[in-house]
Amino acid sequence: MLRRALQLGLGRGLLGRRLGTHRGGSTLGKVEGSGGYRGSWVAPVSSYVTFRTRDPAHDGKTVGRLGEGDQNGKMSEIKKKIQSVLPGGAWNPPYDTSYLPPEHSDVVIVGGGVIGLSVAYWLKRLEKPRGAIRVLVVERDHTYSQASTALSVGGIRQQFSVPENIQLSLFSVEFLRNINEYLAVVDDPPLDIQFNPSGYLLLASEKGAAVMESNVKVQRQEGAKVCLMSPEQLRNKFPWINTEGVALASYGMEYEGWFDPWCLLQGLRRKVQSMGVLFCHGEVTRFVSSSSHTETTSGEEVTLKRIHEVHVKIDRSLEYQPVECALVINAAGAWSGQIAELAGVGKGPPGTLQGTKLPVERRKRYVYLWHCPQGPGLETPFVVDASGAYFRREGLGNNYLGGCSPTEEEEPDPGNLEVDHDFFQDKVWPPLAQRVPAFETLKVRSAWAGYYDYNTFDQNGVVGPHPLVVNMYFATGFSGHGLQQAPAVGRAVAEMVLDGHFQTINLNPFHFSRFYLGEKVQEHNII
Amino acid sequence: MGLGKTKPLHLVMPVWNRGTRGIRGLSRAVALEGSQKKGRSLLQFLADRFYDVQALREYLLQKQVLKVHQKNRPFTYIKERFGPHAAGAYFILKQGGAVKFQGKEWIRSDAHGHFSLDFLKFQAVPVEAVNASGCAINYQGLDSLLALKELRSLWLQRCPHVDDWCLGRLHPLANSLQELSLAGCPRISERGLASLHHLQNLRRLDISDLHAVSNPGLTRILVEEMLPSCQASLLGSNSLPGPGEVSRPGEPHSPNPVTSPDMATTTSRNPALDLSRDSKYPYSNVLLARFPVGHPSAHGPLRHPWPPLAKRPEPPWPPRVPANPSATNAALVKTGLGLCSSFPR
C-alpha cells in the first residue's frame, strides 16, 4: 500500500517542477502498463478513474486503473492525505495559466541565448541567500532556429588586442574546461562540450605584422599561450599552407579551439532550470516606465527613466502578461537594438546622451561546409587568413567549415537567413584556395547563415547599465565573439547587478556611455 | 507497479564507497553515459520535493569533485626545496604511480602508500619515465608533470580524469617525450589526439581502447599521418579487444606471445605482475607484446613498460570487485592490474 502511495506521489512529482501557477485536472492521463505511471497526469481527487487511451487500437480496453483490486475509497483517501502532506500544492485552479510568466520577477532577462542564460546562471550562483532573486528568462524563439548561439561556428580564442577581451576569453575557457563542475546537475549525465584543443592560427601580411606582434605581446601579458611563427616555421609545421604573402603568423598553443555551442546552451539551460530560474516563451512588446527630471552637474537637464513592468506577449496568441520587475537585462543579441528602443533608449535630440542609440544591429554571416579529400589533416587549426577568410576542420572526414566577413559595402540584407552561394565563389574560395592549394578542388556540402549582434560603433560588447534608463543592463553587441565570452560576461553582469561594480574582470571600458563620448574600444584585426 | 519496480537507489556516484573508486566515480559516469539507466530513484524523488535533500546531494557531488582537486594539489614546498623533478616524482608517488630517475631503478609506493624519500637526494637527476596509470591525475595535476623537462616516457593508462584538455597542454614536453601511452582513458577522444601533433619527437603512441573515440580505425590512420616519425608501434583499437569484450575479464583474448627470457625473469620475480599467466587481464598481454622487454630501441635504459613491483597483499576493503559491476567499471577495476585500484587510503 505504501508503495502504491509513493508511486502516486512520484506521478505528481513531475508536476511539482512546473513553472508558474499550477493547474487543475484537465490533462489526459498517460498510462503505461509496465513502466508505472509516467509523464504528467493529474488524477481528480474525488474518485477512481479508469484511464483509457485515445489510441483506436486500444480503444475500449482498460489499460490501467487506480486502486485496482483495493477496497473502495481507501486509495483516494490515502492519495488525498499524501497530497496534503507533500509540498507542491493540492490547489487546483479552475483554468490553466502555467504557460504565463509570473506576475512579479526581480530580474527579467530578455533573450534566452547563451549570454542571457549565463547571466541567469551567475545571478543565481552569486546571490547571497539561496533563492534570494527570482529570475525570469524570456525567449522568443524556443527552438533557437535563428539564435546566433546555435548557428555559431563555436570558436574560442585569446588572440584579441583589447586586454578585456583576452581576459573574458581566458575566463570562459576555464569555465568550459570545468563545465561539469560549474554546470553539474545531480542525476543528470555530465556534459560533453566536445572541445577541440587545436588552436587558432592567425596569418598577417607585411602590413599587419607589426600589429600582430604588439597584439601577441598583450596576449602573453594576460596569460594566453600564443607563439609567433615565421613563414618558414609555418611551412615546417603545416606543409599544406602556401606562405606566399604571409609575413608573420601567431598560433595559440593552449586554451584555443572550438566547441559545441549547443551543448553549452543546453547545459546552461539545464543548470539554470535546476537553480529555479523561470522560463517563458514569449516576446517583450512593451516596457512600462516612469521618468523623472534631474540636472547634471553641468546644468544640463536629463530625464531618468525606470522600467516598472515588462509586457510579455505569449507566442502565437494575443495574450500578454505584465511582469513587474526591478531590473531588465538586455541580452537579445542581434535584436537588442530593438529592445533598447522599446525602452526609450535613443529617443531624444541627436548628439545628446538621450539621443544616443544602442548601435547594435543584426548582420548576416554565411558559414559554408565543404568537403576536400586532399585537404589538411588532423592537425589543422582554426586558420584565419590575412584576407579575413577563415576555415576549420569539422570532424574526421576531411570536411571543413569556413566563411568570411563581407565588407561594409556588400553587407547582405539581414531580413532572412538565406545563403548566397555566389559569395563563396567570389569572396571565400579564392583567398582560401590561394592559402591552401589543396582547396582548389572542393565541393560545398552545405551552408547556413546566422546573425552577428554587430556593434557598428566599435565591434565590441556593451556591458553594464544604461546611464539614463537606470534599471536596464546590457550584455550584447559582441559582434561575433559573444559565444566564447558568454560565461565571463554573465558573471560580469551578475556582479554589476549584485555588487554594483565589476569584480573579476573590469569591463568599465565596455560601458554604454562610450557611444556618447566617442571613445572607441577598437579591436585591431577583427574577425 | 510498486516502488520495487523502480530502479535501485543510487547517487550518481557512490559516495560512501571508500577508497579511490570514489574519486573515479565521475569518470565512470562519463564512460557509461550511453548505458545509463533511465529511471527515478527515491533519492531523486526526494530531491525533487525537498530543498534539503537537493542541497545535500549537491553538496555530496561537490565534495567528490573537491576530492579530486585535493589529490592534484601541487607540492610547492618540495618544488622550492628540492626542485621540480623531486616534486614531480613525489606527486606521482603520492598518487600511487611510479617514477624512474635517469640511471636509477623504478620507484613506487608499497601496499600502504608509503615510499622511501631517498629520491629527494637526486636533485640534479632528472626524471625520465613516469607511470601514472590508473591515477586520479587531472588537468591541474599535470602541472607537476610538465615541469619534468627530460621526461621521455609517460604512461597515462586508464586515468579517469585525463581528458582532451590535458592532451592540449602536453606541448611543453615536445622536445623530450618519446613514448606516450593513453590506453583506456575513458575521456580522451579524437579531438584531443589531434593536439598531439606538437609532440614531434614521439616514437611510440598507444591509443588503444579509448571508448570516447568515435571512429578508432580512421582516427588511428589520421594520427599516423599527423605524426609521421611516430613508428608503427602505434596501436590502434582494432588490434585490441573491443570494449564489449574487455568487460568480460574471464576470457583471455590473445594468447601470450611473449616468450622472452627477460620477461620470464620479470614475471617470476614479481608474482603480482604475472600478467602472462593471469587470464584476468585480457589486454595486458597485447601491451606486453607491443612493448617488448628487450626491445633494441634507442630509448635508453627503459626496459619494459611496467615497473617491477613489490608484492602487494590484497587489502580486505574495499573489495576488488564491486557487488554489481557495470561493464566498463569492471574492466577498469580489473585492468587496473591491482596496482592502484585497491590503493588503501
From TrEMBL, chain A:
Signal peptide: none annotated. Residues 106-496 form the FAD dependent oxidoreductase domain. PANTHER family: FAD-DEPENDENT OXIDOREDUCTASE DOMAIN-CONTAINING PROTEIN 1, SARCOSINE DEHYDROGENASE-RELATED. Keywords: Electron transport, FAD, Flavoprotein, Membrane, Mitochondrion, Mitochondrion inner membrane, Oxidoreductase, Respiratory chain, Transmembrane, Transmembrane helix, Transport. One of its GO terms (biological process) is mitochondrial respiratory chain complex I assembly. It is a single-pass membrane protein. InterPro entries: FAD-dep_OxRdtase (IPR006076), FAD/NAD-bd_sf (IPR036188). Its cofactor is FAD. Required for the assembly of the mitochondrial membrane respiratory chain NADH dehydrogenase (Complex I). Involved in mid-late stages of complex I assembly. Pfam families: DAO (PF01266). It is found in: Mitochondrion inner membrane. Associates with components of the mitochondrial respiratory chain complex I. This is FAD-dependent oxidoreductase domain-containing protein 1. One of its GO terms (molecular function) is oxidoreductase activity. GO terms for cellular component: mitochondrial inner membrane. Its main location: mitochondrion.
TrEMBL record, chain B:
Transmembrane segments: none annotated. Residues 256-270 have a biased composition (Polar residues). Residues 238-277 are annotated as: Disordered. InterPro entries: LRR_dom_sf. Belongs to the ATP synthase subunit s family. Required for the assembly of the mitochondrial NADH:ubiquinone oxidoreductase complex (complex I). Involved in the assembly of the distal region of complex I. Interacts with incompletely assembled mitochondrial NADH:ubiquinone oxidoreductase complex (complex I). This is Distal membrane-arm assembly complex protein 2. It comes from Leptonychotes weddellii.
